[in-house]
Design a protein that fits this description.
Strands 7-8-9-10 form a four-stranded antiparallel sheet, with no helix packed on it. A three-stranded antiparallel sheet has the order 2-1-3, with helices on one face. It has a three-stranded mixed sheet with strand order 4-5-6, sandwiched between helices. Helices cover 27% and strands 25% of the residues. By secondary structure, the chain is of the alpha+beta class. The chain has six helices and ten strands; from the N terminus they run βββαββαβααααββββ.
């Protein structure tokens, strides 16, 4: 197929056929460069495909309104986040968030009776919810989970500690209330850089004499030391020896 950016295409996904937008133009690649499980672009989207897509979006809006109403009527402790109708309408997927497990069997019956198709309810976590809803992070840009991240890797407080960041939850948490994904971006570099640095309290030799390490900057590769005279100085790592 001769495809150009922004063109609409019908693609084959794990869930069946779907409408997609060409993000990058086709390019040649060796078999080793092709990702495993690569799915097929079936055809350029036709006018009929576009109408089907528009009708599906309308069905999703109706399904959302109906589901929210039934959740309220049945007083279920859950929040509907997203509704997705497969291209061929063989299934409607409802994603929701909740603090605990929810018995939604009666809700499924309501949905099946109303829409006469397969219904799937999927409970998602806070990070997946933020990925769907989107929003702006404290950096002023759209959240990474909704733009450049393909998978939501684990983020730990240890990563923030390694980067000498404040452990105030308000400063290192994203819109989802979990640790910000970007804490992991430079974690490996900080870990490697800190591996070269002498530890705090260690005795070292400098051109100014013996000293005790009081801190350091891994990215600048500098070390803060306290000389025997009591003076504190910042020296390049290369000027420090054990």
């Amino acid at each position: 197929l001769s495809l150009r950016q922004e063109e609409q295409v019908v693609v084959r996904t794990e869930g069946g056929l779907a409408i997609g937008t060409v993000a990058t133009e086709p390019q040649e690649a060796t078999e080793e460069q092709v990702a495993a499980g690569l799915k097929e672009v079936v055809r350029l989207a036709t006018a009929e495909d576009q109408r089907t897509c528009e009708n599906n979006r309308q069905l999703e809006r109706e399904a959302r309104d109906f589901c929210v109403r039934k959740i309220r009527e049945r007083r279920l402790p859950m929040k509907l986040v997203d509704v997705e109708c497969l291209f061929d309408r063989s299934k409607i997927l409802f994603s929701f968030s909740a603090e605990n497990r929810v018995d939604f069997r009666e809700l499924v019956k309501d949905l099946v009776h109303r829409f006469r198709t397969r219904i799937e309810l999927r409970q998602i976590g806070a990070r997946q919810e933020a990925r769907i809803i989107k929003g702006l992070g404290i950096c002023g840009r759209e959240v990474c989970c909704a733009t450049l991240l393909h998978s939501l890797d684990r983020v730990s407080v240890k990563m923030a500690k390694e980067q000498n960041m404040s452990l105030n939850p308000e400063k290192i948490s994203g819109l989802c209330g979990r640790l910000m994904c970007c804490l992991g971006y430079e974690s490996e570099q900080y870990r490697a850089a800190k591996g070269k640095m002498p530890k705090r309290g260690q005795r070292v030799s400098t051109r100014m004499g013996e000293a005790t390490v009081t801190g350091g900057n891994p990215l600048k590769e500098t070390v803060m030391v306290e000389l025997e005279s009591g003076a504190s100085v910042e020296l390049p790592l290369k000027d420090i020896s054990n």
